[in-house]
Amino acid sequence: MKLNSIILIISCWLTTFTLGHNVLLPAYGRRCFFEKLSKGDEFSVSFQFGDRDPQSSNQLTGDFVLYTPGRTQVLQSIVNQAHGEVTISAPDGGKFEYCFINENSNVQTKDVTFNIHGTVYVNVDDPNNESLDGSVRTLSKLIKEVQNEQSYIVIRERTHRNTAESTNDRVKWWSIFQVGVVVANSLFQIYYLKRFFEVTSYV
C-alpha cells in the first residue's frame, strides 16, 4: 500500500511543472515565450517588473499579453502594471505564446521576474475531490503561490531599499549644507561684532 502511495505522489510531481525566470526587456521591445498545453491543462504566469539599475528607486511597469495557439486572438492582457498574475485553463491544445512588453518605454534597465507553473488537468478546487492525487496537487498549487509571493516581496524590498538609500543621501547633503550655512553665519557675526567694537582714533 505504501509503495502505491509513493508511486502516486511521484507521478503527481512529474505532471506538475514550475519554472522561474528573470529577463531584461529591451527599450521599445518585447520578450515572448510559449508553453505547449493540452486541452484542459491549467497554466499560470505571475510576474513582477523591476529595475536592474541599483541606484533606481522607481517602480517600473509594463504590459503582458497571452495569445491562443497561432496568435489567432488575445486570451489575456494586462496593461501598465507593476505586477500581476494570469491563470487559464487551456481551451484547446497547442502552443500558447505569452509576451512581456516594453514597447512604450525607452528604459533599458527594465527587467521582469516571472514564474510559470501548471498542472495537467485535474479539478483541484472540487470540494468533493478527497483523493490523494487531488490533495497533493492542491498542496503543490499553494506552495507555488507562496513562492510567487516571496519573489514579489524580494523585488519590492529592493525597490524600497533603493528609495531609502536615495533619501538618506539627500538628507546627508542637506545636513552638510545646513552646517556650512551655520558656520558661515557664525564667522560673519564674529567679524561684524569685532568691527562694531573697534575703536577708531583720528589724529
TrEMBL record:
Q: Which PANTHER family match?
A: TRANSMEMBRANE EMP24 DOMAIN-CONTAINING PROTEIN
Give the highest taxon in the source lineage. Answer: Eukaryota
The cross-references to Pfam families, in alphabetical order and at most eight, read:
EMP24_GP25L (PF01105)
List each copy of the GOLD domain by range: 30-118
A GO cellular component annotation in the UniProt record: COPII-coated ER to Golgi transport vesicle
Which GO annotations describe the biological process of this protein?
endoplasmic reticulum to Golgi vesicle-mediated transport; protein retention in ER lumen; vesicle organization
Q: Which family does it belong to?
A: Belongs to the EMP24/GP25L family.
Q: What is the lineage of its organism?
A: Eukaryota, Fungi, Dikarya, Ascomycota, Saccharomycotina
The question of whether Transmembrane is a record keyword is answered with yes
Task: Write down the membrane topology.
Answer: Single-pass membrane protein; Single-pass type I membrane protein
- Membrane-crossing ranges are 6-29
Q: Please state the gene responsible for encoding this protein.
A: NDAI0B01890
Under InterPro entries, the record lists: Emp24-like, GOLD_dom, GOLD_dom_sf
What's the protein called, per UniProt? Answer: GOLD domain-containing protein
What are the record keywords, sorted? ER-Golgi transport, Membrane, Signal, Transmembrane, Transmembrane helix, Transport
Localization in the cell = Endomembrane system; Membrane
